[in-house]
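User: Thanks for the earlier help. One more: XRE family transcriptional regulator. Can you show the sequence and predicted structure together?

Assistant: Of course, both are below.
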Amino acid sequence: MRVSDILKVKGNTLFTVTPDTALSDAIDTMAAHDIGSLVVMEYGDLVGMLTFREIILTLHNNGGSVGAATIRKVMDDHPLTCTPETDVNEVRRMMLEHHVRYLPVMEKRQLMGVISFYDVAKAVVEEQGFENRMLKAYIRDWPEQQEEAR
């Protein structure tokens, strides 16, 4: 399974912000849409990611306030990315090794979407469920002559 398979199921809704967006506005957007990340774009290029991790760190560092901070000051400005052709097992390894929950999906310089750890886990569970059903059907329909030949 590839990242492109996850994106087909997930859909193409994508939320982006600019680095100069107020952090408080980004938090409002994330809360309103129940999302854990925003892709930060500037002049058509990916320049960062904002996740709840950066927000929590900012709250911690500022005594519980985000103040007048912009996304540029708190975003991850070197986010890990993948491509639509990246294998899901490689994505799992990347996410675990780098301790990230969200990966922008890039095809050359174009943003194709974002996948989350949840998206990957859901896809793997569904794929395993399908394989299990196919194996059970295969075993149930085992030809009798092959059983006798054993």
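User: Great, one quick takeaway?

Assistant: The two ends are 35 Å apart (CA to CA).
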